[in-house]
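BUG: 3D viewer hangs when loading the predicted structure for this chain

Environment: internal workstation, default settings.
Expected: structure renders.
Actual: progress bar stalls at 90%.

Input used:
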Amino acid sequence: MDLVIQKFAMHYTEFFGDCNEKFLEDNGRCIFLLYMKPIINGTGNYYIEARTRTNRRTDLIIDYRGRQYIVELKIWRGAGYDKRGREQLADYLNAYHLKRGYFISLNFNKNKQMGVKKSYPWG
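Structure tokens produced before the viewer hung:
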């Protein structure tokens, strides 16, 4: 999954790096799913806005080759919003008893830093 996220970031930046903020979070999720669908085809599945036991909705859960991945997508709206999104992902990981998840931040600022950043712990 790490490699898939890295390649997605590279291709997303290439094709959509100059989009403005009118490009909504749902559009980003659709593009990510279009990217993932041929990868998981026949060997996995995905769930959009699946509910946790506490009735919270995750953005995306991917089942692939016997493993489960949680992906949270957000539009960059500042460090505080970003922190809350990462905490939300940490809550989902706890609910599903997983140690690792993925947070995709769609940033439309002119001075953005593109690429993949690893951050632990999530909270």
